Amino acid sequence: MDFSELFRNFPELTTTGLTQGAIYALVALGYTLVYGVLRLINFAHSEVFMVGTFAAMWTWNALGFNQNLSPSGVLISAGVLIAGLLAAVAVSSATAVAVELTAYRPLRKRNAPPLAFLISAIGASFVIMEIIGIATDRAPYGNMPELVSNKPLFTILGAEITPVQIVIVVGALVMLVGLDWFINNTRLGRGVRAVAQDPDSAALMGVNKGRVIGLVFLLGGVMAGVAAVFANLKYGFTKFNLGFLFGLKAFTAAVLGGIGNLRGAVLGGLLLGLVENYASALVGTQFRDLVAFVVLIAVLMFRPTGILGESLGRARA
Amino acid sequence: MLLEIDNVTLHYGRIKALHGISIHVNEGEVVALIGANGAGKSTTMRAISGLRAISSGAIRFQGEDISKVRADLRVVKGICQSPEGRGVFPGMTVKENLEMGAYMRRDNAAIAEDMERVFTLFPRLKERIKQAGGTLSGGEQQMLAVGRALMGRPKLLLLDEPSMGLAPMLIQQIFNIITEINQQGTTVLVVEQNAQQALSRAHRAYVLETGNIVKEGSGADLLHDPAVKAAYLGVA
């Protein structure tokens, strides 16, 4: 236990933790949205995120930019970044909807038991991971231009703030607020909440359940696509199995906040990011990944419903 | 004929819940379906609204066979239901619940009008307009479920046990409202365990026993039928 390390670097650990947590939160929303409506853990969601990271990188390469050639000027950089973002969002959401159509919908039509969905989810996850694994020779892929600077811009209380961190935290915030608004204030969003709270009653109101299910997969995919680009900016590389650990952590974040609860997923993501960073300062970075799962087990033991506890159903969020 | 249930059977797994029942509802009527617990009343309702698929027979609405139409599309055709157990959305406010009732409508001005009409029928709901559905009392939830079904401007209103769990005075009140809704032009099919109230309000009624229709007639006739009296009205 090295408390001096924790205290000395506390501001830095906090900003890093929040940045990482913001990405977890975006991915966690995908788990929580689908769970809220289907009571299903979509384990293939980790791959929905992973394909987004490749989609963005390949788009940047296709536009002619790579680790040796970064776009010059803020405007061009932003344009290139957004092109990658659109590609990631498109590929991730298409993957999410494809998983729903091929791995889950046929099972639902046959009234399959929950275990069948779980196995189908794991199967879909492996299929996607292996396809990308084969396509990329299972090698890490980091041929990425510098689109947002990683050099400190200013310091707050001793913590250096970089443009990458600002883009990630602000971008995530915009997405989170937007999703929250959509779910609470639009007709379609109300349909999502209705199916989450009482699927039979929702049908009696004229809500098309199939469409709502497709919509939550789509929304989860959009969030994962944005998260994928942010992960690229932060880590600078990706790999076919990147989704595995990342997905498990985002899932942990969703459970931590209260699975099925949108605001819970955000809270859980940020908390997990912070806890991971504080703990790795305290007990060593080699334990970083362990921390997430200790947290998961502790939550399941002491507060199985998560911090906010309520589902998309009960909660107004 | 607005609704015709023609020799319908329905299974839960291997268990036959409806043994070929036939019921019809004419435009402008209040029709009651009475029977004991487990007789198949709610199952019949679920079959009409499409929450449960039927095994054989046909359900016709305005002459069209809707047996294979998805539940949400039957709402568009004009069948709205206040379900067994009320089915109020617990995390939505009273207002949002009512708006859900008009989910498939786009005529916002008329929706606002209908909401005012629901508040006139159930002033209590207006007092609770911002409260979450899950925090309402049983009686209030019942009002909300009926009001929400009305928000769909149904041609046929299905009410499943509207008196369930209500105090006697509230039961009286809710049946008064059913009569009023009917007089305003909505056709009603009501399932009830409270046979006394249902039969005295209904134009016609059916008695359901273990998945079979065993009697039908005018509400008044059944109310005075010795067998019905003995079985459902607690009179020897």
For the structure shown, list the relevant keywords.
heterodimer, A: 317 residues, mainly alpha, ABC transporter involved in vitamin B12 uptake, BtuC, two-stranded antiparallel sheet, 12 helices, 2% strand, globular, B: 236 residues, alpha/beta, Rossmann fold, six-stranded mixed sheet, four-stranded antiparallel sheet, 10 helices, 39% helix, 27% strand
Describe this structure in words.
Chain A has one domain: ABC transporter involved in vitamin B12 uptake, BtuC (Orthogonal Bundle). Helix content of chain A is 73%, strand content 2%. Chain A has twelve helices and two strands. Chain A has a two-stranded antiparallel sheet. The termini of chain A are far apart. Chain B has a single domain (3-232), classed as 3-Layer(aba) Sandwich (Rossmann fold), CATH 3.40.50.300. Helix content of chain B is 39%, strand content 27%. Chain B is built from ten helices and ten strands. Chain B has a six-stranded mixed beta sheet with strand order 6-7-8-3-9-10, with helices on both faces. In chain B, strand 7, helix 7 (168-183) and strand 8 (187-192) form a beta-alpha-beta unit. In chain B, helix 3 (94-101) runs parallel beside helix 6. Chain B is globular and about 45 Å long. Chains A and B meet through helix 7 and helix 8 of A and helix 2 and helix 3 of B.
Q: What's the number of extended β-strand segments of chain A?
A: 2
Query: Which outline of chain B best applies?
Result: globular
Our count of helices of chain B gives: 10
Domain tally of chain A: 1
Instruction: Give the DSSP E fraction of chain B (strand runs of 2 or more residues).
Output: 25-35%
Largest sheet of chain B: 6 strands, mixed
CATH superfamily of chain B: P-loop containing nucleotide triphosphate hydrolases
- The helix content of chain B is 25-40%
From the N-terminal CA to the C-terminal CA of chain A, the straight-line distance is 39 Å
Largest interface: A-B, 23 and 29 residues
- Please write the string of helix (H) and strand (E) elements of chain A: HHHHHEEHHHHHHH
Give me the strand/helix succession of chain B.
EEEHEEHEHHHHEHEHEEHH
How would a textbook summarize the main sheet of chain A? 2 strands, antiparallel
| CATH class assignment of chain A | Mainly Alpha
CATH architecture classification name of chain B: 3-Layer(aba) Sandwich
For this structure, the quaternary state is heterodimer
Q: Specify the overall morphology of chain A.
A: globular
